[in-house]
Design a protein that fits this description.
It contains 8 helices and 5 strands. Helix 5 (about 130-145) packs antiparallel against helix 6 (about 150-160) and helix 5 packs parallel to helix 7. It has a 5-stranded mixed sheet with strand order 1-2-5-3-4, with helices on both faces. It has about 210 residues and is α/β, with parallel strands linked by helices. The chain has a single domain (about 10-180), classed as Protein tyrosine phosphatase superfamily (Protein-Tyrosine Phosphatase, Chain A).
Amino acid sequence: MNRDGSGFALAIVGTGRARGQIAITCCPGRGGGMPMPNQAARLLERDVATIARWGAEALVTLLDDLELARLRVKALPSLLEANRIAWHQVPFHPYNTPDPAFEHAWRALAPHLVAILWRGGRIAVHCRDGKTRAGLVAARLLVEAGCSTHDAVNRVRAARQGSLDGPKQQEYVRAQSFLGRPGEVDREDFVEPDAELAAVERAARRISVGG
């Protein structure tokens, strides 16, 4: 389903250890650039329908409100709701690695997205061109869902030509880590019972049994 970046297309990436899939794409309604105002609504509806037919449970938008307004796609949230696709807007500035505001919002959202992928669900991620920001965030999500950083970079670059072509972007992906399969206990967060208290309790039980 992937193309060279012209037109609206979904670049599908498997998630390795998880069973779900991620689609990387440009902004819905803007695959062909800036259409005439009388065409904009129809193209947006067409592209959202494409995402829905693919089976996406959620769409992650990496554009801010001003970008959505400039692209004339402010109807995107309502169209997604009509198609029963959850919408998550997590903006970050183009041509940069994510800033602290993005990191804060992403940390709250990522566990939910990872859970969708582990149960075999599908998630679409888009920015304006479907390469710079969307490729970076898709690779991060792959790592958080269980892919190695090297594998995540290769998967995204193979699926979406032109993605992750800068060293800073690749370094950012390599700095990410696995969030953990939903329901798993993180060993770093698991606190062992106090050894001395446990020994006292075991001794008390022996005394009780013997007494």
